[in-house]
Amino acid sequence: TVINLSSKTLNTSQKLILSKGLNFALTPKDVPTLDIITSIEETCQKLSEDVSNEFRIRSKLILEKPLKIKSNINEEEKLSLKQLKHDKDIKILPADKGNATVIMNTIDYNTKILNMIIEVSFDVVSLFTNVPADKTLSIVKNKLENDSSFKDRTKLNVTAFMELLTLCIKTTYFQLENDF
């Protein structure tokens, strides 16, 4: 379902492409060979040597054949998608409830968001007064310093991780469009 709350009149092709839903995935233009090979190698690491070699050989034979990918949208829909994507006067977003796509004027959307910010700001302030931030950060830092697998899960060291976490917990900045 497409709900057009904007002043823009959508043509049939634009309505059709939007009716596919915001989770509709376009077929890729090219076969993502590198991604496929990476996935194959990750899988092969978990298999015995004989099985992984056989798996690599079969995968190579399949990947060597030229694959033609047929697009799942036509040229008119591609053009419509491009037009909608570059139209700065509208916002395309999911409906709050239901499985619908909503089109709003950008100005109306921004006004709605700005009206909600006062409410959100009060809620965030109220939340953080109830959470002892310094004590929480201290507990997290202690846990990370004693976690022997931390280095295996991230390239960050504990100090850098704590700086980022402190920034997240102690600041309430956010971005709307190009304004902070």
From TrEMBL:
<protein>
    <recommendedName>
        <fullName>Reverse transcriptase</fullName>
    </recommendedName>
</protein>
